[in-house]
């Protein structure tokens, strides 16, 4: 089943994209400096990860717990 049709999998993919883009931007800032186009989507995900990092961390923790126990 695709991650687009299962809401739980979709949330997991979105959280992983946000966390990955934030990590890449912190390690290699020149890769995600373009704010438009295809890479602009990843720049926006990295910006969400930077600005909402406590909420993203709580979401990752909750998603990890739900994957382990459900």
From TrEMBL:
Protein name: Protein kish
Species per Swiss-Prot/TrEMBL record: Melia azedarach
């Amino acid at each position: 089943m695709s991650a687009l049709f299962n809401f739980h999998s979709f949330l997991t993919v979105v959280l992983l994209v946000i966390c990955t883009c934030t990590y890449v931007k912190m390690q290699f800032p020149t890769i995600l400096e373009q704010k438009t186009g295809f890479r602009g989507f990843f720049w926006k995900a990295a910006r969400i990860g930077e600005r909402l990092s406590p909420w993203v961390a709580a979401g990752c923790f909750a998603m990890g717990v739900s994957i382990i126990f459900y």
